[in-house]
Amino acid sequence: MENDNKTKNETTFRNGEVPRDAYKAWLRYAPLNPDQAEEYAPWCGTVVAAFSGHAPLLATACEELRDGIGSMLGRRPQESRSSDSERFLLVGTLDSAELKGLMDEADMEAVGDEGYVLRTVEQPERRFIAIAGKTDKGALYGAFHFLRLLQTGQRIRDLRVVENPAGKLRMIDHWDNMDGSIERGYAGRSVFFHHGAFLGNWNRIRDYARMMAAVGLNAISINNVNVNETATRLIAPELLPSVAKVADVFREYGVRLFLSINFASPIELGGLTTADPLDPQVREWWAERATDVYRHIPDFGGFLVKADSEFRPGPFTYGRDHADGANMLAEALQPYDGVVIWRCFVYDCLQDWRDRSTDRARAAYDHFRPLDGKFRENVILQIKNGPVDFQVREPVSPLFGGMPLTNQVLELQITQEYTGQQRHLCYLVPQWKEAIDFDTYALGEGSTVAGVATGALTDRPLGGFAGIANIGDEPSWTGHILAQANYYGFGRLAWSPTLTSEQITDEWVRITFGNDPAVVETISRMLLDSWHIYENYTSPLGIGWMVNPSHHYGPNVDGYEYSKWGTYHFADNQGIGVNRTVSTGTGYAGQYHDVPAARYESVESCPDELLLFFHHVPYTHVLKSGKTVIQHIYDSHFEGFEQAEGLAEAWRGLEGKVDGDRYASVLSRLQQQSKHAAEWRDVINTYFYRKSGISDAHNRTIY
Amino acid sequence: MENDNKTKNETTFRNGEVPRDAYKAWLRYAPLNPDQAEEYAPWCGTVVAAFSGHAPLLATACEELRDGIGSMLGRRPQESRSSDSERFLLVGTLDSAELKGLMDEADMEAVGDEGYVLRTVEQPERRFIAIAGKTDKGALYGAFHFLRLLQTGQRIRDLRVVENPAGKLRMIDHWDNMDGSIERGYAGRSVFFHHGAFLGNWNRIRDYARMMAAVGLNAISINNVNVNETATRLIAPELLPSVAKVADVFREYGVRLFLSINFASPIELGGLTTADPLDPQVREWWAERATDVYRHIPDFGGFLVKADSEFRPGPFTYGRDHADGANMLAEALQPYDGVVIWRCFVYDCLQDWRDRSTDRARAAYDHFRPLDGKFRENVILQIKNGPVDFQVREPVSPLFGGMPLTNQVLELQITQEYTGQQRHLCYLVPQWKEAIDFDTYALGEGSTVAGVATGALTDRPLGGFAGIANIGDEPSWTGHILAQANYYGFGRLAWSPTLTSEQITDEWVRITFGNDPAVVETISRMLLDSWHIYENYTSPLGIGWMVNPSHHYGPNVDGYEYSKWGTYHFADNQGIGVNRTVSTGTGYAGQYHDVPAARYESVESCPDELLLFFHHVPYTHVLKSGKTVIQHIYDSHFEGFEQAEGLAEAWRGLEGKVDGDRYASVLSRLQQQSKHAAEWRDVINTYFYRKSGISDAHNRTIY
């Protein structure tokens, strides 16, 4: 029996010191302790593949099982087509000869195209664990599920799991530019591009595809939604062969490739004089491009589009609307089962700060709501979780539940643009859970965002989740090693939005750092607390912003206050906040359905954490917490800093329990965070003390 | 007689549309009106050169006279070595046979090395105008003076002028990088460099040298004081031949070339392990470099040095002081008559905004005052006019008058970094005049900055004026055509600091736009008012800053308030200002001599315009103007905007009186200025209204 411990994790790094564990992320497959190994070993000596017809991903599944198990148990399972062992793993498709009859008809129906079952079968004649998908792709997901069970020390003797993904589209958006830079990237340069061309580090891309598949992700867009000159050419004949090579790698792991496109391509690439979506020549041009793309990439996912947004071209130029633009592209992709993902991040970014009647928060709903029902079936609108832009705290976008006749995808930002840029620990799964669980009341109580985004609520054919990647070419992929949890968590939520933050966290920590209870408890606590900690020492009570313009790092209370970006707090010497009520404000609160609309409209029922997003109140306003707004600001900032120090403190308790490289790397980030949290605390407290003239009730130092 | 109207103004521009008049700047030599022409013509038919020995600049002088007169009078003077005309111009050196005896001994003594006389001589046997220098360089300056008289319509029948420059060093500092960018440049790219090499547009450099000589400037440093990797090599063998070519061009016009050097050159260039100024190897290395530089450029001016300032290397690294650093370089240059110009812009740029005891304004004096008397005779300290950094309003640096045993140069910023970046009209001559005329009381009343900077007050061997260039490769040289006046005015003040703003302005306007009284009156008024207008709508009462970080354009009241740069206003809901008194503040006011120290120390005697620089006062504090501080802020900002609109209005009155190209170009800038002045007005007023809660007494719109 082999025991070569071969893994696919080989790659080339720019310097010699590779923190291998950091690179392996959730594919570490660290050796299990002897008790666990002894329990699992009897089942894991042989992997038997069972399929009928073409099932290329089954080979991937078997390979992953053999590699992962080999690494964890110290023995690489044999591969076999027959099942003569005493106990074995049977990996395959439900329609295969070996697996037919495993489940009855009713059970079979519960397994969707990407779904799978894990089942321990103890029959007189044979004992095996079935890892079976309706398709080979389902089996691959099942294999990763099984590996996860081993990594986290679960029982496998009586498995009876049926899993289907909640979101059809579980997608990662890269904002990578072809020069190798990454917009809002904090983990190095692009893993795809450099110097205007493809980087060609196929090993690394394959590892990345494995990481995606392991958390159930099935789609990726590799280039920035702000499509510049070079990237416009990705759909041109000269670059498509390279794009196809990338697609080939992702395909091995069940991930479909998308491209962000430039709406003005017919002009910039095609030499036409217009990009008018209703122009027959334009339509023809796109149809031809689509045909060519599919000639190279038969399972190409489709186009991701940022149009008429932040100076990007779009249908408005031609007096057309977003539906005209999206449908034109959708028509071109339709013959090939491609989809158009059209972003709703549309607002006036040349606003006048003096004009209090224009409200950026309203913009997406005002633009798109009237178009409900006008989009083709293969168009999906991609909507950020909140109405503004990935702030540490925002209400949910009212477009969720506001367009029942339109496919939607929930866009989340894994990369920590406004949440510490991977220099601060800010685990976003709890934030995302709040958005996902939010009840829109679109069809009465229980109309959660999860239901809307997956399409389940209104029976839409398409839907799902899109996350902006926090991935770069640093050895750890994410810069801050603990930021891997955000990527992992995104994938897990996209598959199963009903998982709790605690479940996902526990799982990730065990897989990444092992099953030592002290380690699991400490890191889980750190992760789960970190979003609130970050919120405590940054922008208070839902008001957002207060960051340095452009790069968005570090405190600057008035940074966007007199800008054209529509992001204001209106703090004066009496109070702070934006009046977005229907009665006396911008009316934004009225974009929600009845129950949330009423909740936000009234200062009494509006939750503390969103108070300043919806209301302008005096500093002396008493919150539900019993504190005044100003005292809340002071308290949360003093507390937030102490909590940030506590994170570093807690981590120090793990010295010796986490390998030296990862320990040192994380500690250094946490120390930076703690120092920078003091800067946030002091700038915010001083700003509001100087402005309000109200002293801290506890006489702490405010400069 | 020739009439070829040939000029040296030919150059190549990147686009076809050359606003020729803008390019010619103060070398336009526009045709004079017939009356004037008739008056001057009889004298100007022949130019006779008179010299003994080597006098290469006399040829330049004659050429300039012939070109300029040819252009103005429509007839190019003949050149002649003999004086057989009825009337003629006699250009030469006072020791020439033709000019000997022109003046008596006493008069002769009054003419310094760069000085000259202009004298109308009506003798029975001959009538001529003598343009005579002690040296050929003096004669060149005299020639430009004479041309200026014609351009501005002065009488020449009874000339009796003796002129000497007040400042020995009349220098321009370019902050040009070798990649072609210009630090704080607002008029295009460098005229010297591009892509890490010399641009080689010799015609343009020659025209620039002519412009310099025409206003009496005699020195130039061509590379940024922040000397990066490439520019470090300017003193290396491979680049010196190119540097020498530039020096050759400037030499034709009496301008000596300097280079900014990198203090760490011995390491970065020489491969030594140290740049310690007391290390013998380092001293030897610099001596060798100096020898090599002078081998290529025999009249090389010397080194300009920014050391231990804003992250630049310097002697501090080795536990040495500025005197050690400067003297080491001075020693290397001494054999060749070279000088070291050592900048005093030294402060802690990693300050903590929470620390109110550290005061950046104090830094230069604290660093350099103790070193008085320790610098070699060929070291000059270059000191910015104010203690902070070229703000619209600052007190004078107390180093002027604080170091009687040290050569000093007054550094002024011609490029409008903080004063509108050549998008706003801000004529700085009145600001500079205030600095130059400031009485330091170093040796009792009458100890002006002019006296200190020129060295006259304490009989220093060296001194003068340095201006940071506002020059780039735009057709107009300065972007905003009216910004040419700042360059011109700097040159004129460096020559003659006793000139009034009005004199300089009148002269420049006539030369640049002609002698139409309406034009002269309007543009002069615009220029003379513009600094106060800019001050009105920007940072009030001497507090400074309130600009966007990094690029320094546009309003941002808290832009630097929580930064590490040491530039704060400390505005809270009660008041604003920095307490720099000796009694209760940072003690900065005590760095001045008795009279100004007492004036600034007391809130009663401190002038309004500097009040917030020296004192923290409540918004309700009543100024000498009778207004409260807050009402002053509102009033000056409303007024400043209206005045800015008035500038555009005034300019519109000149339509048809100024050529179309220049009219349109200036109008467009003034319109931008007016629009942007409204932004300043509203941001500043809103900021202080929100902060103070005090309403405008006149109920004007504050957002």
From TrEMBL, chains A, B:
<dbReference type="InterPro" id="IPR005154">
    <property type="entry name" value="Glyco_hydro_67_aGlcAse_N"/>
</dbReference>
<keyword id="KW-0119">Carbohydrate metabolism</keyword>
<feature type="domain" description="Alpha glucuronidase N-terminal">
    <location>
        <begin position="25"/>
        <end position="146"/>
    </location>
</feature>
<dbReference type="InterPro" id="IPR011099">
    <property type="entry name" value="Glyco_hydro_67_C"/>
</dbReference>
<dbReference type="InterPro" id="IPR017853">
    <property type="entry name" value="GH"/>
</dbReference>
<comment type="similarity">
    <text>Belongs to the glycosyl hydrolase 67 family.</text>
</comment>
<keyword id="KW-0858">Xylan degradation</keyword>
<dbReference type="Pfam" id="PF07477">
    <property type="entry name" value="Glyco_hydro_67C"/>
</dbReference>
<feature type="domain" description="Glycosyl hydrolase family 67 C-terminal">
    <location>
        <begin position="478"/>
        <end position="700"/>
    </location>
</feature>
<dbReference type="InterPro" id="IPR011395">
    <property type="entry name" value="Glyco_hydro_67_aGlcAse"/>
</dbReference>
<dbReference type="InterPro" id="IPR037054">
    <property type="entry name" value="A-glucoronidase_C_sf"/>
</dbReference>
<dbReference type="Pfam" id="PF07488">
    <property type="entry name" value="Glyco_hydro_67M"/>
</dbReference>
<keyword id="KW-0378">Hydrolase</keyword>
<keyword id="KW-0326">Glycosidase</keyword>
<dbReference type="GO" id="GO:0016787">
    <property type="term" value="F:hydrolase activity"/>
</dbReference>
<dbReference type="Pfam" id="PF03648">
    <property type="entry name" value="Glyco_hydro_67N"/>
</dbReference>
<comment type="subunit">
    <text>Homodimer.</text>
</comment>
<dbReference type="InterPro" id="IPR029018">
    <property type="entry name" value="Hex-like_dom2"/>
</dbReference>
<feature type="domain" description="Glycosyl hydrolase family 67 catalytic">
    <location>
        <begin position="150"/>
        <end position="477"/>
    </location>
</feature>
<dbReference type="InterPro" id="IPR011100">
    <property type="entry name" value="Glyco_hydro_67_cat"/>
</dbReference>
<protein>
    <recommendedName>
        <fullName>Xylan alpha-1,2-glucuronidase</fullName>
        <ecNumber>3.2.1.131</ecNumber>
    </recommendedName>
</protein>
<keyword id="KW-0624">Polysaccharide degradation</keyword>
